[in-house]
Amino acid sequence: GQQLNQSPQSMFIQEGEDVSMNCTSSSIFNTWLWYKQDPGEGPVLLIALYKAGELTSNGRLTAQFGITRKDSFLNISASIPSDVGIYFCAGQTLLSSNTGKLIFGQGTTLQVKP
Amino acid sequence: KAGVTQTPRYLIKTRGQQVTLSCSPISGHRSVSWYQQTPGQGLQFLFEYFSETQRNKGNFPGRFSGRQFSNSRSEMNVSTLELGDSALYLCASSLLDGYNSPLHFGNGTRLTVT
To answer: In this predicted model, what pLDDT tens digit does every residue of A1-24 receive, in sequence order?
Structure first.
């Protein structure tokens, strides 16, 4: 089936550093979403992207929908300890648009050293 | 506005038993989707219900089933439990009365099969 390749798998950074992670696919996606999951909780929506080339910010987070529609990246600026968690990208193909069916990446585990 | 509520939070069952998980979506949300999360396979789509009808189904055996009630609340059932069914089961809801309706997840039900 379709898969999303998310990288890196894990990151260990110093507080205050910027972070970048990305997702790529062999298929075209109509929607890209970025979620964060803390231990024992469900994924929380960070940013939703619906248009190729779209660049959207949410506080210290910035995400972009790649112009080829096959990739997306998420940047976190000036990381803080509460940024620790697992970040997931998720996408929807044209066929799955406006449905509840998402394809998820494998996640990026972020650890921040104070 | 209350978020997506899943009950119970934890369940321990024995192989061969069956289990029912419950999900109450965000008020006004008409679509409910279920996902299975495991360390090995990540987040995988199970099925989606919209207006009491199953609209999408993932690649899971028929032992996994669900339903949606007229108030949009949903249940999923797993029959003849296997050890490999141990996972975090996540429910997500969305408006889906147009495009650009991202999924919002609950905190999941942690199922352990012994």
So the answer is: 567 999 999 999 999 999 999 999
Are B55 and A40 in contact (CB < 8 Å)? no
Q: What does the CA dihedral A11, B107, A89, A9 come to, rounded to 10 degrees? A: 30
> Which of A48, A101, A107 is closest, CB to CB, to B102?
A48
> Which of the four pLDDT bands, split at 50, 70 and 90, describes residue B99?
low
CB proximity B30 to A under 8 Å: no
Mind telling me how many Å the CA of A92 is from chain B's nearest CA?
10
The chain A residue lying nearest B10, using CA atoms, is A40
Under a CB-based contact definition with an 8 Å cutoff, are residues A86 and A108 in contact? yes
Report d(CA B97, CA B101) in Å as an integer.
Answer: 8
Strand pairing class (B64-68; A103-104) = unpaired
- Look over chain A and give the mean of its residue pLDDT values, rounded to a whole number: 94
Task: For tokens 């999924």, name the residue.
Answer: B103
Residue among A41, A98, A103 minimizing CB distance to B96: A98
**Which amino acid would we find at residue A80?**
I
- Among all chains, which residue has been given the structure tokens 């970048």? A20
> Across the interface, do A42 and B106 touch by the CB < 8 Å criterion?
yes
Answer yes or no: are the C-beta atoms of A75 and B31 closer than 8 Å. Answer: no
Residue type, B81: L
**C-alpha–C-alpha distance, residues A84 and A68, integer Å:** 30
Q: What is the mean pLDDT of the segment spanning B44-61? A: 93
CB contact under 8 A, A98 and B45: no
